[in-house]
Design goal:
The chain has about 400 residues and is an alpha/beta fold. It has eleven helices and 18 strands. Strand 13 and strand 14 form a beta hairpin. The protein is globular and about 60 Å long.
Amino acid sequence: MAPDLTTDVLVIGAGPAGSMTAKWAARHGAKVLMIEKRQEIGSPVRCGEGMSKEWLPEVGISPGKWINVEVEGARIFSPRELVFEINEKSAGNEVGYVVERDGFDKQLAIDAANAGADVVLKTAAVEVLKEHGRVVGARVKQFGSKFDIRATVTIGADGFESQVGRWAGIPTNLALRDMDTCLQYRMTNVDSDLRYCDFFLGKVAPGGYVWVFPKGEGVANVGIGVQVSQVKTTAEARKYLDDWIAKHPGYAKGKKIDMVGGGVSISPPLKQTVIDGLMLVGDAARMIDPLTGGGIANGCIAGKICGEVAANAVAAGDPSAAFLQAYEKGWRARLEEKLYRNWLAKEKLCTISDATFDKLIDALQGVRLEKLSVHNILKAVRDKYPEVTKEFEAFL
């Protein structure tokens, strides 16, 4: 690859948000280059691999071979393992399909390439280039040699550990209570129900939950997310998960064939995702749902908006922060209210006892919720346990 390249839009990171941004920027006529530091898009997988499906048409994704299982809904288990069932339409961002995440990411990159974007692997950004206070591209490293890629608009889609935002001067720091450490096994020879994604709440996973997402007959992703402020090490998170598995005979007999781990932000979204010449998207912009830790849908929805605005900025010859505000306004109008609401709910849920979780789920027995929201749940609980809802009055 020749040293020092020039492009209209440089996308750093080829996850779902990056690929979606690249695709929509290219579709709107921009010359797009997307770089990925790893040698293979989508690997290693760091994801529970569950996602909802109603948003796919909005961003132009067609269901494909990457779908393992289509589930009917979710089951939420209290600490005493009282169960509340909800259908996939009401269940939120993590329920609908269980997917092969590396296949999904590759398909989105293929879509971006087919729309006209160039994709380059094993190429890591090492710093952003700035002139007169504006970001004008990035210095990258490929096979040991460094060169510059200059761009009218640069997109930081470099995930949870995002450095692009920090290099550019956007504050991206996280408090420990706004991070989860996650660990997941793919297990075979287990008794999971192919109709449901399962979530187990309470002290089994402090500040988070245990999940079981079925991948096929006898195979499931069994994972845990715990709040970093409530555990000392990843080994502690692993012990919580192993303890949960040991207590559930349908999983204790299973065999682990894969293990992944990583961090997830459960924070409010960034107050700022745009500066002159640069936009942040997806996990890099803290668009992960703070309640569920899921980020695919939000990253893709914001990516479409980001790509369109990037192409418009190129066409107008104006990559200023003022022009790029269209992205800031667009994604916030679509996602921000729910992200903030779910962050507040997460903050509250981290403080409640197992006994209260049991009462919450008990109160929901037999209740049909049209739409799963904190507000609707609490309205249903208020009738049976008014003392529980006192703790949550702010949400009502």
